Amino acid sequence: xxxxxxxxxxxxxxxxxxxxxxxxxxxxxxxxxxxxxxxxxxxxxxxxxxxxxxxxxxxxxxxxxxxxxxxxxxxxxxxxxxxxxxxxxxxxxxxxxxxxxxxxxxxxxxxxxxxxxxxxxxxxxxxxxxxxxxxxxxxxxxxxxxxxxxxxxxxxxxxxxxxxxxxxxxxxxxxxxxxxxxxxxxxxxxxxxxxxxxxxxxxxxxxxxxxxxxxxxxxxxxxxxxxxxxxxxxxxxxxxxxxxxxxxxxxxxxxxxxxxxxxxxxxxxxxxxxxxxxxxxxxxxxxxxxxxxxxxxxxxxxxxxxxxxxxxxxxxxxxxxxxxxxxxxxxxxxxxxxxxxxxxxxxxxxxxxxxxxxxxxxxxxxxxxxxxxxxxxxxxxxxxxxxxxxxxxxxxxxxxxxxxxxxxxxxxxxxxxxxxxxxxxxxxxxxxxxxxxxxxxxxxxxxxxxxxxxxxxxxxxxxxxxxxxxxxxxxxxxxxxxxxxxxxxxxxxxxxxxxxxxxxxxxxxxxxxxxxxxxxxxxxxxxxxxxxxxxxxxxxxxxxxxxxxxxxxxxxxxxxxxxxxxxxxxxxxxxxxxxxxxxxxxxxxxxxxxxxxxxxxxxxxxxxxxxxxxxxxxxxxxxxxxxxxxxxxxxxxxxxxxxxxxxxxxxxxxxxxxxxxxxxxxxxxxxxxxxxxxxxxxxxxxxxxxxxxxxxxxxxxxxxxxxxxxxxxxxxxxxxxxxxxxxxxxxxxxxxxxxxxxxxx
Amino acid sequence: xxxxxxxxxxxxxxxxxxxxxxxxxxxxxxxxxxxxxxxxxxxxxxxxxxxxxxxxxxxxxxxxxxxxxxxxxxxxxxxxxxxxxxxxxxxxxxxxxxxxxxxxxxxxxxxxxxxxxxxxxxxxxxxxxxxxxxxxxxxxxxxxxxxxxxxxxxxxx
Lengths: 745, 157
Ligand code: FES
Ligand code: FES
What we know:
The complex is a heterodimer.
Chain A: H1 14-17, E1 20-25, E2 61-66, E3 71-75, H2 82-96, E4 103-107, H3 126-151, E5 159-161, E6 164-166, E7 172-174, H4 175-179, E8 183-187, H5 210-216, E9 231-237, E10 245-248, H6 251-255, E11 260-266, E12 269-274, H7 277-290, E13 292-294, H8 305-311, E14 317-320, H9 325-330, E15 334-342, E16 354-360, E17 363-368, H10 373-384, E18 391-395, H11 407-418, E19 425-429, H12 432-438, E20 445-453, E21 459-468, H13 483-487, E22 515-522, H14 537-555, H15 559-566, H16 570-582, E23 594-602, E24 609-619, E25 624-635, H17 642-662, E26 667-668, E27 671-672, E28 690-695, H18 711-726
Parallel strand pairs in A: 1-8, 3-4, 9-19, 17-18, 21-22, 25-28
Antiparallel strand pairs in A: 1-2, 2-3, 5-6, 6-7, 9-12, 10-13, 11-12, 14-22, 15-20, 16-17, 16-19, 20-21, 23-24, 24-25, 26-27
Helix pairs in contact in A: 2-3, 10-11, 14-18, 17-18
Chain B: E1 3-9, E2 12-18, H1 24-31, E3 51-53, E4 56-58, E5 72-74, H2 87-94, H3 104-117, H4 123-130, H5 140-151
Parallel strand pairs in B: 1-5
Antiparallel strand pairs in B: 1-2, 3-4, 3-5
Helix pairs in contact in B: 2-5, 3-4
Bound molecules: FE2/S2 (inorganic) cluster (2 copies).
One FE2/S2 (inorganic) cluster binds at residues 39-42, 44-49, 59, 61 of chain B.
């Protein structure tokens, strides 16, 4: 802000004497993974800045311009992921005509931002981007009105350039000078004109993320890096499996170890607290060796999982009825039926969950990598029996999170422990085994599909039947949703939800099919489950787009042509057409050494369009195959930051390839057996395919959620490529070479 | 139990008074207050905790601190020289090679170790060098591009 004239203000009097313009708005339903705050040095913030009064209006977010030249967006709605923060800042800077460096976002701190509850959605700029755009436009509009009054000129005679309003008399004034001494507050009226995308200068550019500079230097960034005074280190001894009860423990043998301050035993919740982190690690190791548990055996094991899923599920519920669908399929020229399986998958965050908590002067502060500081506060209030006003939750970046992982549980455990150590800050970090065994997994699913085709290859009717456990057990205010809550002497009850939109996300084909039916059986499965990137969409699209490929085969139609024939949304057709062009489909290698497969989906049937081609090298003498390349085309409407969109999409593609080819949570009657990276291998560099992403940028369309668009289609494209290369259809994930009958290839 | 241990870290001689059996990672984070090396698994499976030990990328989550005496030790905090970023740091920024960034330490350290030994690695050699490091966000393709970019920068590593 060097070249802006800033009114002189005494820093001490900043909040009292300086002016500002504050516009309130609602950030639309939106969720993201990496919760973050703007504290760059990762020291614990000690002061709670003045908080805007939202009066009677239900406003959850604010944009503030102040005389120091800063534009601050504050939202209490949700935490915003790193990759999209820059996109949201670009939107605000564009609409306001200010330097991007003057804009910041503050989110994820119940002490700083007003609360408006919790909403889940897609990790995107879809809703929040629009809201921020309108609020920034409103701010600009109000500033223009101020200048027009000052100069007695109409708004249409004024222009704005980089924070300066200019008039035809060559006079100019900065926003900040205009604001000096004034406290203006308002809300989005919808009157403010929105910029024409054609004149955008900031939106649409691949601006760099500022946090990467900090990360490559080894700067403090993650919740793991917080160093507070009076810090103590904790480890929780999680039971060996679900529903286990502590039967024998010897506190004395632990308390004599160096540096051990206390062993917390509350029912089956056990935690050790040490002066030094490694002392807690040693104590936990010894505890695990010595402690005894009793636990019920798990009745379902992987061998009978899908059978059990069918026999033990609740009765089916009709999400979408279509009377007489069975006879319509039967009466079709051709018909097909198939069943697909998706195992339990893990988030498997690279750095195990970590949280800090401090109980001081009757106030609890929790630093957490949660996806929602407000739901965390509500749930902690239930768990601890503490008034909401006494709890402050501060969101901090965690290691990559793709839904509901161990972050909330670790936060609750840190809080439980801190309550026993007033005036100290407690840092709890999970072990690798804790994270692998105790995170809530993405649910296993069975998906049974049936469809008919007419003589021209048009789909006549489509019947979907799916079985799945819940895809959402986030602790929305309930202490029983924390594993620790269930392990206490006075346990909290856990009531598992049933199916939701997330379960049948993308279960209904986006294709133009006259008759579609969808029914679901909710299944209470053996493992803990919750939201994992894309929720049910991953399994549903794997099944649906594999099945489309099977239909194309019996219709004897090229898989691109078959899809295009059954789609009528122009944007869907465009992503497929561009994919075909970019990959040179017509001139592909047909000598049998490479299998090619494609897939398409419009995420949620309402967000981004994504089409992908997978190339799989077939080596029948070595009885193996290898994914070599993925090429994707994405249409997310208006693109705010192209490189950010590509980065996110590439990541989704590689992660999905890993789920699809390698991953399956292993368990037996004694519990989860995938406890580390060797018992739950994920994709490493030697198996990583080349990835290429093309964007269709639609300036005139609204931005669409893109973070989860690739997960499902990549799985189906790989299965389709394996079929193309081997002639064998794998319908059960993960897709491993040993599932192929190589004698027949 | 505690012992005075001298370490040659990031070009400086540092002394810590710790249990010599404690894995180096805890000393790096607790006593030397570094953030680069991170805990990922504690099992030598993920590479989050890597440090350059005599120019070789080595995990620090199991090996005791005493075994790092008399070695040239470098963390990513020490890569920047005279206010100038190391070419691998520049390449990671240029390629925007990160999503959450938790794995960056292991990637940068493994890449520097590779480039010092082999300034012109092939793609297969890059993959092999980075293979010990886990990235859950799927940023692999960008890391490979960033290492190639650094290799092409004609700077010294
Ligand atoms: S933390 Fe050392 S290799 Fe994973
Ligand atoms: S960028 Fe998140 S683990 Fe690699």
